[in-house]
Amino acid sequence: MSLFIIGDVHGCFHSYLKLMDHWEPKTETLIQLGDLVDRGNFSPLTVRLAFEIKKVFKNSVHFLRGNHEQMMIKYLLGGDHSDHWLNNGGRQTLEQFSKHKIDPKKYIDWLNAMPLYWENKNVVVSHAGFSGVGSPLDLNNPDGVLWNRKSLVNLGKIQVIGHTPLVDGRPEFQSSSNSWNIDTGAYKGNCLTGIKLNNDGTFLEVISIPTDPKDIDNPSNQASTIKTKKTIQKNFITYK
């Protein structure tokens, strides 16, 4: 199985659907590197779709935790007594859950079970990458795999990360750290990006989908009229 790794979605549901059309479930392991939620207009639908995909495809699909999932988890479990998440997109996300009549706590166990990274012998995927500073898996380490903005260390394998949106909306390879950043700023109106690699880390293809305007505008009617009837097909899930 080759790898299809998707960057930060940030509630850009329609862009996410278009990118998922490029996934080949029979031959590709799907990995999403975190930040499904906040910023865009459709966080609840994005979470629900990811949850259903994981239920169907189980071990061939991996949704990793990003810093926005971490903030959401902490808030929903009552551990955030500040406005940290609310001021970073959480307030709008809660409004969206209410509008769609979806209880975010339905997904809290799944969110809280999200791993911090995925790896094989040649590739490691995490939200913000390994900086070499402090414990990388410490949820509160500002230089850990959830929050890091520092340069990455070379782990001797390909790293694929997101977290820091690239200004020009194009994925970037850094030879010094042997790493790809594939956060191309979907919520900023750029594009949502996925990268395909062989299991040995060999590059195959980059797929970038321009952000669907519905995901970042504030449509007055579309949010209330969108239909998300689930159809489970033999090899994939579609929402119509």
TrEMBL record:
Domain of life: Bacteria
InterPro entries: Ap4A_hydrolase, Calcineurin-like_PHP, Metallo-depent_PP-like, Ser/Thr-sp_prot-phosphatase
Pfam families, sorted: Metallophos
Domain Serine/threonine specific protein phosphatases residues, every copy: 64-69
Protein name: Serine/threonine protein phosphatase
Organism, as annotated: Belliella alkalica
